[in-house]
Amino acid sequence: MTQTDTTPCAASGVTRVLLPDDAATMALGRALAPLLRAGDAVLLRGDLGAGKTTLARALLRCLCDDPAMEVPSPSYTLVQTYDAPGEGGQEMEVSHFDLWRLDGPGALAELGWDDACEGIVLVEWPERLGELTPPGARYVDLEVRADGGRDAFLRGWGAQAEAVARSVEGDTKQAGEQA
Length: 179
Ligand SMILES: Nc1ncnc2c1ncn2[C@@H]1O[C@H](COP(=O)(O)OP(=O)(O)OP(=O)(O)O)[C@@H](O)[C@H]1O
Ligand SMILES: [Mg+2]
Known about the structure:
Its main location: cytoplasm. This protein has 179 residues and is an alpha/beta fold.
């Protein structure tokens, strides 16, 4: 398999995106952001250090239209919220959760989960959501590759997933050629 291969699998609805470095992870975040609307949940799965926060940071900066926006990891606060311009010029809340240290489902309610779901939620360690996992959520699974890069597997992103994968891998290849 070459470095630029995408492995779309229409039957299972999974699209693989090769991310050789963190710039590619950020490019994926920027490519996914325009697909999101209020009410969407993006569940970011992957081991410690897989790149979940890196992806969320790029998504948030794009959603908030601020490429330099400070996006701290919510690993201690568990949630950070941002105001983004939504459809029709109305403000929309985007919430970035890291549930690694979540202390039971009651604690999620205290973090304002229900209200957050009216905007966009980005969730690291979504396994902790249990029964509160939103139906129809969009998944990005990140896996560390033997060469140090990452593979991303997109699930639930619909027909646009393949176009996203091709554009990210095209940008990555171009950046590699220019380097
Ligand atoms: N595609 C990539 N290739 C190589 N390194 C990457 C890639 N994407 C992100 N990284 C790097 O991986 C490291 C960990 O990233 P990050 O903090 O986003 O992981 P995480 O999944 O949020 O970790 P945690 O589980 O601790 O929250 C960072 O140094 C980041 O730059
Ligand atoms: Mg993280």
